[in-house]
C-alpha cells in the first residue's frame, strides 16, 4: 500500500490545487505542492529501503482490476497495479527526490507569477504521471503515464501561453513526441497480438523461453519490428535523433520546468522504457546495435550544436540531448545498469545546472544570452560555485558523480558485442565535445568582464539556496550511491575483456582534461572578453556556426519536407467533398431554423390568428 | 309565444363569435381587442341561453352567469394591464409587445 501512496500525494495535491486555484494564497499553495512531493520522496525512500531488505528485491501491489484485453488466444487482465524492483526503485528515488528539490526551487522562483497555483498543480501532475509510468506493472498503465507526461510537458512548456512562441514550442513538443508515441502504441499492439499479454513480469518470463526454443523466423521478424517500434517511442520521448527537435524549443517554459523535463521526468522515460523491456531487446541484437549508433550520433551532433548556442538554456538543452545519447549508447551496448546509473547522476547535475542557470537568469533580469553575461564569477560567487560543480560533473572530471557513471559506460563499450571500438571512439569524442562546450559556456558566462549594466538582483531565499546546495552535494557524491541492479538485469552482457588495450582507461580519464586545455587555448577571446562585444561576436558569425546554432538544419529539413507539404495539402483540401457532405447537414438544419424563426415573429396578433386557424382545422378534422 | 329555433340562435352566436375573433386579430388597439373579447364571450353566452331555453333547463342561465363573472374579472385584469401598457409605452398598440420575437 505504501507503494500506491507514493503517487497518491501528488495526485491529491494536484486535484486540490486545480479545484481551488484562485482562492489560495502563495504560502498555502507552496506548502501543499512541495509537501506532497516531499511526502512522496519520503515514501519512496522508505520503499527503497524495504526493497533492499526484501528477499527477492521485488514489491508489487494491485489496486483494482481495470479492464480485460481480449485476443484470439484468450483474454488478459489489465490491472491498476504497481511493481517495484531495483530499476523502478532508482527511478522513483530520482523522480521524487530531484522532483522535490525542483519543486522547492520552483515555489520560490515562481512566487511572483499570478498563475502560481496552476503552475504548481501541473508540476504535481507531471510527477504523478512520471510515477505511474515508472511503477506500472503492465504496458497499458505505463502508456497512460507516458501520455500523461507528454500532456504535462505540453501544458508546462506553454505555461506562459500569452506569447505565441511559447505556444508554438509547446505544440511542437506535443506533436513531435506524438510521432514516437504512435510508434510505441503500434509496438504495444504487436506485442499483445504476439504474446497475448502486456504484463511486464509475464512478458519478461515468456520471452527468454521463446529464445530457448527453436528459432522461428516469423517470430524473430515480429520481435525485430516490435523492438524497432519501441525504440521509436523511446526516441520521441528522450529527444534522440531524428525526433530531437522539440527539446531545444522546450526551453520556452519556465526554468524549473526545463529542469524537471531534463532531469527527473520526461526525457528519461525513453531510457527507462528500453531498460524495462530489455528482454525484448536482448533477443534482437540488430536493434541494440541501432540504439547504440543512434545514441552515439545524437551525442556527437548535440555536442556540436551545443558549441554554437548563444542561449545558456539552449546549451544545457543540447547537453541533455547528448547525455541521453550516452545512456542510449550504454543501453545499446547492453550496459543496462551503467545506463541507469548515468540516468541518475545526470538527473542530479542537470537539475543543478538548470536551477542555477534559472537563478542566474533571474538575477540578470531574464537575460539568457551568454554574450550579455560575463564576469559572473565575481558578481555572483554563490551561483558560480554551484554552476562549476554542475559543469565538473557534466564534464565527468574524476571524483564527481558524472565521472563514475560515464566511465562505467565507456568502459563497457569496447568489448560489447553490440557496440565495439568505433562506438568507443564516438563516446570519447563526445566527452571531448562535452568539455569543450562546457568550458565555452563557463568562459562566456563567468569569466571576463561583465557585459551587462543593470545591477544584479539575486534571489537569496534560504530554501531556494538549500535546494541548490542539496543538489550540488548529490551531484558531487551521487557517484558513491551503490546501485544493486544485478537482479533486474540478470543476463547482462558478460564483460569478457577480450583484447582490450591497456590504454583505454587512461584515454577516457584524460579526455576531459584535453578538452579543457583545448578550450582554454581556442576560446581565449571568450575568456578575456571585456565589455567590447564586437571582438567576441567576431568569431561567431560564420555560416557553419549559424548552421550549428540552428540545430544542424533538422528543423528546416522537417519544415520543408514534412510540415510545408502537409500544410499545403491541408490548404488544398480545405473544401474537400466529405466536408461538403457534412456541410449539407448544416445547410438543411439552417433552412429549418430560418423557417421556424419566421413563425416566432413576436406579434401577438399573429399568434392568435394561428391559434384560431389551428382550432378551426382541428375541429374540422374531428368533425369530418 | 313562438320559440326561436335553436339553429337560428347558433347562427347568431357563431356570427358574433367570428366577428369578435376577427376584431381580436385585426385590431391594433388593445382596448378594442378587449372589447372584441367581450363580444366573443357574449357569443358563447347567447349559445348557452338559447340551448337552455330550448331544453327548458336552468343550466344554461347558470353558465351564463358564470361567464358574466368571468368576463368581469377578465376586464378588470385586462384594464389594469392596459394602464400599465399606456404608462410604459405611451401607446396601446399591441404590436409594440413583440419582445418574444425569435
UniProtKB/TrEMBL annotation, chain A:
Organism from which the protein derives: Colwellia chukchiensis
UniProt entry keywords in alphabetical sequence: Membrane, Transmembrane, Transmembrane helix
Ranges where the NADH-Ubiquinone oxidoreductase (complex I) chain 5 N-terminal domain occurs: 73-120
A cellular-component GO term for this protein: endomembrane system
Upper lineage: Bacteria, Pseudomonadati, Pseudomonadota, Gammaproteobacteria, Alteromonadales
Parts of the chain that traverse the membrane: 31-51, 90-109, 116-135, 141-161, 182-203, 223-243, 255-275, 287-308, 315-337, 343-364, 385-402, 422-450, 462-483, 503-523, 606-623
Protein name per Swiss-Prot or TrEMBL: NADH dehydrogenase subunit L
GO BP, sorted A to Z: ATP synthesis coupled electron transport; electron transport coupled proton transport
Topological type in the membrane: Multi-pass membrane protein
TrEMBL record, chain B:
Family matches, as InterPro entries: NADH_UbQ_OxRdtase_chain4L/K (IPR001133), NUOK/Mnh_C1-like (IPR039428)
Gene Ontology molecular functions: NADH dehydrogenase (quinone) (non-electrogenic) activity; quinone binding
Cell membrane as UniProt keyword: yes
GO CC annotations on file: NADH dehydrogenase complex; plasma membrane
Gene Ontology terms describing biological process: ATP synthesis coupled electron transport
Catalytic activity field: a quinone + NADH + 5 H(+)(in) = a quinol + NAD(+) + 4 H(+)(out)
Record-listed E.C. numbers: 7.1.1.-
Compartments where found: Cell membrane; Membrane
Membrane-spanning residues: 6-25, 32-55, 61-83
Keyword Transport in record: yes
Membrane topology recorded in Swiss-Prot or TrEMBL: Multi-pass membrane protein
Keywords: Cell membrane, Membrane, NAD, Quinone, Translocase, Transmembrane, Transmembrane helix, Transport, Ubiquinone
One Pfam assignment: Oxidored_q2
Family note: Belongs to the complex I subunit 4L family.
Subunit structure: NDH-1 is composed of 14 different subunits. Subunits NuoA, H, J, K, L, M, N constitute the membrane sector of the complex.
Role played: NDH-1 shuttles electrons from NADH, via FMN and iron-sulfur (Fe-S) centers, to quinones in the respiratory chain. The immediate electron acceptor for the enzyme in this species is believed to be ubiquinone. Couples the redox reaction to proton translocation (for every two electrons transferred, four hydrogen ions are translocated across the cytoplasmic membrane), and thus conserves the redox energy in a proton gradient.
Annotated protein name in UniProt: NADH-quinone oxidoreductase subunit K
Amino acid at each position: 500500500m505504501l507503494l500506491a501512496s507514493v503517487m497518491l500525494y501528488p495526485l491529491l495535491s494536484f486535484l486540490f490545487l486545480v479545484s481551488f486555484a484562485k482562492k489560495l494564497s502563495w504560502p498555502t499553495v507552496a506548502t501543499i505542492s512541495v509537501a506532497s512531493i516531499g511526502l512522496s520522496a519520503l515514501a519512496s525512500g522508505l520503499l527503497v529501503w524495504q526493497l533492499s531488505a526484501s528477499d527477492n528485491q521485488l514489491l508489487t501491489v494491485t489496486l483494482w482490476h481495470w479492464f480485460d484485453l481480449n485476443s484470439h488466444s484468450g483474454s488478459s487482465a489489465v490491472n491498476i497495479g504497481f511493481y517495484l524492483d531495483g530499476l523502478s526503485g532508482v527511478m522513483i528515488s530520482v523522480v521524487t527526490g530531484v522532483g522535490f528539490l525542483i519543486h522547492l526551487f520552483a515555489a520560490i522562483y515562481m512566487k511572483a507569477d499570478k498563475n502560481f497555483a496552476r503552475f504548481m498543480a501541473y508540476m504535481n501532475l507531471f510527477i504523478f504521471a512520471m510515477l505511474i509510468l515508472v511503477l506500472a506493472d503492465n504496458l497499458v498503465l505505463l502508456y497512460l503515464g507516458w501520455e500523461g507526461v507528454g500532456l504535462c510537458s505540453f501544458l508546462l512548456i506553454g505555461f506562459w501561453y500569452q506569447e505565441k512562441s511559447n505556444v508554438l514550442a509547446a505544440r511542437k513538443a506535443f506533436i513531435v513526441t506524438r510521432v514516437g508515441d504512435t510508434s510505441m502504441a503500434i509496438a504495444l499492439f504487436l506485442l499483445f497480438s504476439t504474446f497475448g499479454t502486456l504484463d511486464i513480469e509475464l512478458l519478461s518470463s515468456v520471452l527468454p523461453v521463446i529464445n530457448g526454443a527453436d528459432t522461428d523466423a516469423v517470430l524473430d521478424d515480429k520481435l525485430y519490428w516490435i523492438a524497432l517500434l519501441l525504440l521509436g517511442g523511446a526516441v520521441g520521448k528522450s529527444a534522440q535523433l531524428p525526433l530531437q527537435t522539440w527539446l531545444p524549443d522546450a526551453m520556452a517554459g519556465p526554468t524549473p520546468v526545463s529542469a524537471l523535463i531534463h532531469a527527473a521526468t520526461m526525457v528519461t522515460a525513453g531510457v527507462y522504457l528500453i531498460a524495462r523491456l530489455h528482454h525484448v531487446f536482448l533477443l534482437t541484437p540488430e536493434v541494440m546495435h541501432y540504439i547504440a549508433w543512434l545514441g552515439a550520433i545524437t551525442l556527437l551532433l548535440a555536442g556540436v550544436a551545443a558549441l554554437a548556442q548563444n542561449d545558456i538554456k539552449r546549451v544545457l538543452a543540447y547537453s541533455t540531448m547528448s547525455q541521453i545519447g550516452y545512456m542510449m549508447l550504454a543501453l545499446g551496448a547492453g550496459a543496462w545498469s551503467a545506463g541507469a546509473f548515468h540516468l541518475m547522476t545526470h538527473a542530479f547535475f542537470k537539475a543543478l545546472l538548470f536551477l542555477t542557470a534559472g537563478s542566474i537568469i533571474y538575477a540578470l533580469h531574464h537575460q539568457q544570452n551568454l554574450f550579455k553575461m560575463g564576469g559572473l564569477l565575481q558578481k555572483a560567487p554563490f551561483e558560480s560555485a554551484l554552476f562549476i560543480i554542475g559543469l565538473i560533473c557534466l564534464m565527468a572530471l574524476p571524483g564527481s558523480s558524472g565521472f563514475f557513471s560515464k566511465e562505467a559506460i565507456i568502459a563497457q563499450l569496447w568489448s560489447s558485442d553490440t557496440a565495439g571500438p568505433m562506438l568507443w571512439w564516438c563516446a570519447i569524442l563526445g566527452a571531448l565535445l562535452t568539455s569543450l562546450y562546457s568550458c565555452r559556456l563557463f568562459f562566456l558566462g563567468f569569466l571576463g568582464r561583465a557585459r551587462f549594466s543593470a545591477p544584479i538582483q539575486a534571489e537569496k531565499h534560504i530554501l531556494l539556496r538549500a535546494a541548490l546546495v542539496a543538489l550540488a552535494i548529490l551531484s558531487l557524491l551521487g557517484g558513491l550511491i551503490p546501485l544493486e541492479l544485478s537482479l533486474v538485469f540478470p543476463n547482462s552482457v558478460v564483460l569478457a575483456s577480450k583484447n582490450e588495450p591497456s590504454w583505454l582507461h587512461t584515454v577516457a580519464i584524460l579526455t576531459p582534461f584535453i578538452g579543457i586545455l583545448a578550450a582554454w587555448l581556442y576560446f581565449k577571446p571568450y575568456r578575456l572578453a571585456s565589455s567590447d562585444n564586437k571582438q567576441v561576436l567576431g568569431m561567431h558569425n560564420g555560416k557553419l556556426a549559424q548552421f550549428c546554432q540552428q540545430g544542424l538544419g533538422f528543423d528546416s529539413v522537417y519544415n520543408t519536407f514534412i510540415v510545408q507539404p502537409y500544410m499545403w495539402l491541408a490548404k488544398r483540401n480545405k473544401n474537400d467533398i466529405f466536408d461538403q457532405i457534412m456541410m449539407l447537414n448544416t445547410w438543411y438544419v439552417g433552412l429549418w431554423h430560418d423557417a421556424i424563426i419566421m413563425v416566432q415573429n413576436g406579434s401577438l396578433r399573429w399568434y392568435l390568428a394561428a391559434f384560431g386557424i389551428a382550432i378551426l382545422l382541428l375541429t374540422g378534422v374531428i368533425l369530418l | 309565444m313562438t320559440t326561436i329555433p335553436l339553429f337560428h340562435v347558433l347562427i347568431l352566436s357563431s356570427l358574433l363569435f367570428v366577428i369578435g375573433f376577427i376584431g381580436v386579430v385585426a385590431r391594433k388597439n388593445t382596448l378594442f381587442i378587449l372589447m372584441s373579447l367581450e363580444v366573443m364571450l357574449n357569443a358563447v353566452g347567447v349559445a348557452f341561453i338559447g340551448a337552455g331555453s330550448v331544453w327548458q333547463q336552468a343550466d344554461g342561465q347558470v353558465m351564463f352567469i358564470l361567464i358574466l363573472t368571468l368576463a368581469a374579472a377578465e376586464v378588470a385584469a385586462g384594464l389594469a394591464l392596459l394602464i400599465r401598457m399606456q404608462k410604459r409605452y405611451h401607446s396601446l398598440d399591441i404590436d409594440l409587445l413583440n419582445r418574444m420575437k425569435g
